[in-house]
Design a protein that fits this description.
- This protein is of the alpha+beta class.
- Helices cover about 25% and strands about 30% of the residues.
- A 9-stranded mixed sheet has the order 5-4-3-1-2-7-6-8-9.
- The chain is globular, with a radius of gyration of 20 Å.
């Protein structure tokens, strides 16, 4: 039997990556065996109910929580990361609730604190209980990431992750910190992606946009970066102005790099596509979704 995958449908529908990068800036990551993950991105089957409630309260306060996993990680001695603070802790399972209470109430954390991470973290969604695309495409890409980083000694710390958003864009990746989201990264693209990010350059074929921007601004940012991609170094972009309505946006950017500076105006239009957002929606069928596309870039 041939299975249908939402990621394949999204690609066929020309569903754009730009504009899909929404993600909270503040993140809490907790290592937990992937086999125990539930459909909810921050819960596991062997978590205590009080711990689940604590995590839910933290998430409600505005902190994104993901479970992470990799081979050889102790199942009962958890690695905990706070991003963008770049803090790292090692916490025994029986002390997790005590640790989280201490952190939330600004109490001393020295007994758990580890040296800050030397490298940026790369999370690859492999959350098969959430979406089968993340199992099929995500795990292949995760293996390629981990192998390439190890073989070439690249400056990254790679983890499998629970749901990162945008299942239809599998394999879905998140770099922390700064927050940079990527989609449709195949094993064949892993080396190019890693080498680009090792130079602190966005990998444009899979880049989804700046998570702090609106969808239209993300689409325009990606168009501006492509427009200026003839140089060896990517520019720093500063948003100057964004005007228009729900259908059309005129977005101005200031760009700067060592060989010069200038301004660009990017024109974006909202369009509607029929899209299946996740494999869980396949039986329901596609629904209308608004996406933004840049259609013109002018140098000011």
């Amino acid at each position: 039997m041939k299975h249908t995958f939402c990621a394949d449908l999204s690609h066929q529908q020309n569903d754009p990556l730009g504009g899909s990068a929404a993600h909270l800036e503040h993140n809490l990551l907790i290592s937990w065996p992937r086999a125990k993950w539930l459909r909810t991105m921050r819960h596991a089957s062997d978590m205590s109910e009080p711990l689940k409630h604590t995590l839910d309260r933290i998430a409600a306060s505005g902190r994104r929580i993901n479970l992470i996993h990799r081979h050889h990680q102790d199942h009962h001695q958890h690695r905990v990361f706070l991003m963008p603070e770049r803090r790292h802790f090692s916490v025994a399972r029986e002390h997790l609730e005590t640790f989280l209470h201490a952190w939330q109430h600004d109490l001393p954390l020295e007994q758990w604190e580890q040296p800050p991470p030397e490298h940026d973290l790369i999370l690859c969604c492999t959350h098969g209980k959430k979406d089968k695309c993340c199992a099929k495409y995500g795990y292949q890409t995760y293996k390629a990431l981990a192998k390439t980083v190890a073989d070439e000694q690249l400056p990254f710390d790679v983890w499998e992750s629970s749901h990162l958003g945008g299942c239809r864009l599998a394999a879905s990746l998140l770099l922390l910190s700064p927050v940079r989201k990527y989609g449709r990264i195949t094993p064949a693209e892993v080396a190019a992606f890693l080498h680009s990010e090792a130079r602190q350059q966005r990998y444009l074929p899979g880049y989804r946009g700046d998570s702090q921007l609106s969808p239209a601004q993300q689409a325009s940012q990606l168009a501006a970066l492509h427009h200026l991609s003839d140089a060896q170094e990517q520019p720093h972009l500063t948003l100057l102005n964004d005007e228009g309505d729900e259908q059309q946006r005129r977005i101005q950017w200031q760009w700067q790099r060592p060989d010069g500076q200038g301004q660009l105006t990017v024109y974006c239009q909202a369009t509607t596509i029929q899209r299946v957002d996740s494999c869980a929606d396949l039986d329901q069928g596609p629904t209308e979704s608004v996406v933004w596309r840049a259609y013109a870039v002018n140098a000011d």
